[in-house]
C-alpha cells in the first residue's frame, strides 16, 4: 500500500487531497508513517525504523500501524502498490 501521488503533505502534519478537496491533520508519528509510505517504504522497513527509534514493541507497532493504514485507506488517501499481494 502506498499514499496516492497527488496527496500533499507539509511538515506540520497537514494532508491535502487535491482530487477531492479534503484535508486532514495527523500527529508527528502519523506524519512519519505517511511520508515513509509516500516514499515507497514497506511495512517491514517502517516497522524496523519505529522499533529502533521509539520504545515500542513489535506487537503494539503492528496493531497501531494497521489501524492507521486502514484509516488512511478509508479516507481514500492510499492506493494499492502494484507489487503488493492481495
Helical run tally:
3
Strand order, sheet with most strands = 2-3-4
Low-confidence stretches: none
Helices and strands: which structural class? alpha+beta
- Count of discrete structural domains: 1
Hey, roughly how much beta strand do the residues contain? Answer: 15-25%
Description:
There is one protein chain. By secondary structure, this protein is α+β, with helices and mostly antiparallel strands. It has one domain: Arc Repressor Mutant, subunit A (Orthogonal Bundle). It contains three helices and five strands; from the N terminus they run ββββαααβ. It has a three-stranded antiparallel beta sheet, with no helix packed on it. A two-stranded antiparallel ribbon has the order 1-5. Helix 2 crosses helix 3. The chain starts with a strand and ends in a 7-residue tail after the last strand.
Gist of the model:
With 86 residues, this protein is α+β, with helices and mostly antiparallel strands.
Describe the secondary structure blueprint for this structure.
Elements (H helix, E strand, L loop, with lengths): L1 E2 L4 E2 L4 E4 L4 E4 L2 H11 L4 H11 L4 H17 L3 E2 L7
Antiparallel strand pairs: 1-5, 2-3, 3-4
Can you tag this structure with a few keywords?
single chain; 86 residues; Arc Repressor Mutant, subunit A; two-stranded antiparallel sheet; 3 helices; 5 strands
Amino acid at each position: 500500500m502506498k499514499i496516492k501521488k497527488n496527496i500533499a503533505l507539509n511538515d506540520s502534519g497537514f494532508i491535502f487531497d487535491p482530487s477531492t478537496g479534503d484535508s486532514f491533520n495527523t500527529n508527528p508519528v502519523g506524519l512519519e508513517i505517511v511520508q515513509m509510505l509516500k516514499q515507497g517504504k514497506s511495512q517491514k522497513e517502517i516497522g524496523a525504523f519505529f522499533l529502533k527509534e521509539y520504545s515500542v514493541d513489535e506487537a503494539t507497532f503492528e496493531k497501531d500501524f494497521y489501524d492507521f493504514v486502514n484509516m488512511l485507506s478509508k479516507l481514500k488517501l492510499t492506493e494499492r502498490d502494484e507489487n503488493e499481494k492481495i
